[in-house]
Design goal:
The protein is of the alpha/beta class. The chain folds into three domains: about 350 residues, TIM Barrel (Alpha-Beta Barrel), CATH 3.20.20.105; about 140 residues, Rossmann fold; about 90 residues, PUA domain (Archaeosine Trna-guanine Transglycosylase, Chain: A, domain 4). The protein has 27 helices and 29 strands. Helix 11 runs parallel beside helix 15, helix 11 crosses helix 16 and helix 15 crosses helix 16. The longest helix is centred in the middle third of the chain and has 29 residues. It is globular. The protein binds guanine and zinc ion. The site of zinc ion has 8 residues, from helix 13 and helix 15.
Length: about 650
């Protein structure tokens, strides 16, 4: 029922398919209290654009009149809302008022019988700081109830909530056990007190732990999160749904929500917001309104603020700039920044979900950027996948303007007159072989000068690591004529370095894995360059077009002839997406691969990678580009896993 359509790292734009229509995620489900309607469901849909809402089945069930109407005509008629309706189970009420008053079986059956789209099992709300013992007890009881609910759900999609307090090991264990059950949506629960106390570091630990255990193909709901401050951060960690009554509760208390925090109406001069309410009113004119009207205006502002922020979050995903949004947003409050720092510390967990190439530049703002998956991945790959050309001398350049190959073309020519040399550049990403100057993210990195101390330390550390592995007899930093004089004295014999050939080979190794260049370029190689830009366009080997280089990210698209070479040389599952027999004929004809047909895949595959699509007998069917990594391909039941560019049964290989 959940499909991923676009992504940025662990953040995703999805479609939740329900009997009452599709919901585009990340989405906020506003809480509707049938006893106290601040904004009508009709307006929530028509005016504010909400595709789904959430209400409390416990409150409806307790009220004879509402209960009878809900059972007779269904929840959608009762609310006057015909999009997706999710219901909560009364867990929170039971927790706050201390009495349950309803069993899991009763409340799940009731939700089912009202015809809700997503119903929630009666989880045991676990206080974050209530100790390990209690958290474990609550976990076991909740697991038992979710299991029971899955036998009662009928056609209703079931939400099974991850509890576990602030204990990452419990959160992860519980998530994994829920992942084995017949559950369609996974709320992360017990986080309201964490968010209310601004304990964002705990929030990040809790969400990341739950995500480690949960199947990535199921939507994740952050229970009780309805402040625009957290949307970007929570989305980046893989949350898809939010819900909250905050917009109404805050309005009642005279509080206004913004992506950078909360403001109180009593202090408000001008509202830094462009919503219809704030365009018409400043603080004074809002304060002058009659109480009831003022509360509605504030609730409306709060809803606009949430919707605006979610639009920004989704667009940032499309742009590949969600991390940058989080980086900016998190600086609004030191506690939120703590959460971001925690995320940076644990960012290794996100790396398998990060695309190999993105439409946006990589903004390196400060030392926290060194934890970004793209930055860590570049370093790991350049040390493990890349093999430098064998030269006696290595000349290192300081950071210059990009592309480095052009910036340092003169200097390289001078060096090559007196020494047989290779070249690299000391960049904020670490040492960059000069021929990788167009490879994503090298050419697309924009850093803030001067580098901060921790960045300098990391880069120096990497240079040291490099120097231990050097096979050159001599390595020097470029210092103009002095370097030339020294090389003339010590070497004296010139050499040649063809940056285009080196680029063709290095890109193949970095992108497909160590040894790819040897496999792909094992014959007469012809490199076709663009007449206009001089950039590498096509790689022809023994007369066959095997690779094309994309101008925007300096990476290859793999042609069928190239795919055949890699397929023949490398054993399964390397670089493969393996599909079942139902999907094989379609892939062969050039149709894309959907997740439900994927049997297995290479664990090293990242979103955006060029891959070999094969059948279970390892016959090459097609070449394509992934949207998902292996874990996601095996988990999603809907949506595209890899976009096929060419099937082996289609004739011309463009
Ligand atoms: N609403 C806010 N937090 C929770 C929670 O932990 N469980 C449920 N069921 N609803 C909630
Ligand atoms: Zn506003």
């Amino acid at each position: 029922m959940f499909e991923l359509v676009d992504r940025d790292c662990t953040g995703r734009i999805g479609i939740l398919h329900t009997p009452h229509g599709k919901v585009r995620t990340p989405a906020l489900l506003p809480v509707v209290n049938p006893h106290k309607v601040t904004i009508s469901p009709e307006d929530l849909h028509g005016k504010f654009g909400f595709q789904a809402l959430i209400t409390n089945s416990y409150i409806i069930r307790k009220d004879d009149h509402l209960r009878e109407r809900a059972l007779a005509g269904g929840i959608h008629d009762l609310l006057g809302f015909h999009g997706m309706v999710m219901t909560d189970s009364g867990t929170f009420q039971a927790h706050v008022y201390g009495k349950e008053g309803v069993t899991n079986e009763e409340i799940v059956s009731f939700q089912r019988d009202m015809g809700v789209d997503v119903g929630t099992a009666l989880d045991v709300f676990t206080e974050p700081w209530g100790g390990l013992e209690k958290a474990r007890e609550g976990m076991e009881e909740t697991l038992r109830r979710v299991e029971e609910a899955s036998t009662l759900r009928g056609e209703m999609a079931l939400a099974g909530t991850v509890q576990g307090g602030v204990f990452p090991s419990l959160r992860e264990e519980m998530a994994a056990r829920l992942g084995e059950m017949d559950v369609q949506v996974h709320p992360i629960g017990g986080v309201v007190p964490i968010m209310e106390s601004y304990a964002y570091r705990d929030l990040v630990r809790v969400i990341l732990a739950a995500k480690r255990g949960l199947p990535p193909g199921r939507p994740v709901h952050l229970f009780g999160a309805g402040h625009p401050m957290v949307f970007a951060l929570a989305t980046l960690m893989g949350c898809d749904l939010f819900d909250s009554s905050s917009y109404a509760k805050y309005a009642h208390a005279g509080r206004m929500m913004y992506p950078d925090g909360t403001r109180h109406l009593k202090d408000l001069g001008e509202s830094p917001c462009g919503c219809p309410v704030c365009r018409e009113h400043d603080g004074a004119s809002l304060r002058a309104l009659p109480e009831g009207e003022r509360e509605v205006k504030l609730a409306e502002h709060n809803l606009w603020a949430c919707q605006d922020e979610l639009r920004i979050v989704r667009e940032s995903i499309r742009e590949g700039a969600l991390w940058d949004l989080v980086d900016r947003r998190s600086r609004a409050h030191p506690r939120l920044f703590e959460g971001y720092k925690e995320l940076c510390l644990q960012a290794g967990q996100l790396e398998p979900y990060e695309s190999t190439s993105k439409p946006s530049p990589l903004f390196y703002t400060d030392h926290l950027s060194m934890r970004r998956p793209l930055v860590m991945r570049y370093a790991r790959r350049v040390f493990s996948r890349y093999r430098p050309p064998e030269k006696r001398v290595l000349v290192g350049f300081e950071e210059g303007s990009r592309p480095y190959g052009r910036h340092y073309a003169d200097a390289m020519a001078k060096v090559l007159k007196v020494a047989d040399s290779h070249f690299n550049v000391q960049t904020v990403l670490g040492p960059v072989p000069i021929e990788l100057d167009e490879f994503y993210p090298v050419a697309q990195t924009v850093e803030a000068a001067p580098w901060d101390d921790q960045t300098v330390k990391r880069v120096n550390h990497m240079m040291e690591h490099l120097s231990h592995n050097l096979r050159n007899s001599l390595a020097v930093m470029w210092d103009g004529d002095e370097t030339l004089d020294m090389l003339r004295m010590m070497e004296g014999r010139g050499g040649s370095f063809d940056i285009m050939t080196a680029r063709a080979r290095a890109t193949a190794d970095m992108q497909f894995g160590g040894g790819a260049a040897d496999v792909l370029m094992d014959g007469d190689m012809e490199l076709v360059t663009s007449k206009k830009t001089g950039k590498l366009r096509n790689v022809i080997v023994n007369g066959e077009h095997i690779l094309s280089m994309r101008a925007h990210d300096g990476m290859y698209t793999l042609k069928l002839a190239g795919a055949q070479k890699l397929h023949a040389a490398w054993a399964s599952p390397r670089l493969r997406v393996i599909v079942d027999e139902d999907a094989a004929p379609y892939a062969r004809e050039g149709k894309s691969v959907f997740a439900q047909f994927v049997v297995d895949a290479d664990e090293e595959i990242r979103p955006g990678d060029e891959v070999l699509v094969v059948d279970q007998a390892d016959q090459l069917l097609a070449v394509g580009r992934t949207l998902l990594n292996r874990r996601e391909m095996l988990s999603f039941q809907k949506g595209m896993a890899a976009k096929v560019r060419k099937g082996t049964a289609s004739e011309d290989d463009r």
